Structures are given as C-alpha cells and as structure tokens.
TrEMBL record:
Protein name in the entry: UxaA family hydrolase
Domain SAF, chain residue ranges per copy: 25-96
InterPro entries: SAF, SAF_UxaA/GarD, UxaA_altronate/galactarate_dh
Record keyword Hydrolase present: yes
GO BP annotations listed: D-galacturonate catabolic process
Pfam families listed in its UniProt record: SAF
PANTHER family: ALTRONATE DEHYDRATASE, ALTRONATE/GALACTARATE DEHYDRATASE
Region feature Disordered, mapped onto this chain: 88-112
Keywords recorded for this protein, A-Z: Hydrolase, Lyase
C-alpha cells in the first residue's frame, strides 16, 4: 500500500539556528527568527526563549543583573539597564550600549 508523503518545510523540522561568537559571550545571535517558547541549544545548554527574537538580534544565554556587562565577540558591548533573564531578547530596551559612551569606557577601564 502506497503512502502519501506530505512536504514539510525545513523551518518546521529543525530548531532555530543561533550563533555563539565567542565562548565568553553572554549573548548569542539569532540566525533565524525565534518564537517565544522555543527551546534552543547553545554550547550544550538548553535555553527556553522567553521573547520573540528577530533575525540578527541577540538572545541572553545566561541571567544578567542590571549593571552587568553584556558581552558579544568576547568584548563588552554595553551594560544591562535592567535584569535580563536567560532566553530574553537583548536590545535597546534592556541594553545601554557602550558605543560612543566615553563614560562607560572609563568605567570599563576602572573595572579591569
């Protein structure tokens, strides 16, 4: 008896891709849009995504307190402006970028 095969898109059969650029990073980059509630695996860690993450945006891979450095490329890119939980979208609403901020660069030098 012949079975009828239904095509299934690759988006339905694989988990969204994320990129951890450097092992010290606290965020990963979404290479696919990720829906809230989706589970992703990063460096062997399972993370439940809490917010919709657009393509190219950052997702926290560990909990951060307000004032903690956000690390991408192995570099400090800014400061968490509020607590950020693992799996949350990291963007301008909860990240104060250090780019163009001389005061944050001075603070970074003082921390090291």
């Amino acid at each position: 008896m012949a079975r009828s095969l239904q095509p299934v898109s690759s988006q339905e059969t694989r988990e969204p891709r994320v990129l951890l650029i450097h092992p010290n990073d606290t965020v990963a980059v979404a290479l696919d849009p990720i829906q809230a509630g989706t589970s992703i695996s990063i460096a062997g860690i399972e993370i439940s995504v809490r917010d919709d993450i657009p393509f190219g945006h950052k997702v926290a891979i560990r909990d951060l307190e307000a004032g903690d450095w956000v690390i991408k490329y192995g570099e400090k890119i800014g400061v968490a402006s509020q607590p950020i939980h693992s799996g949350e979208h990291v963007h301008t609403h909860n990240l104060e970028s250090s780019r163009g901020r001389g005061d944050l660069l001075v603070a970074e030098r003082e921390v090291q």
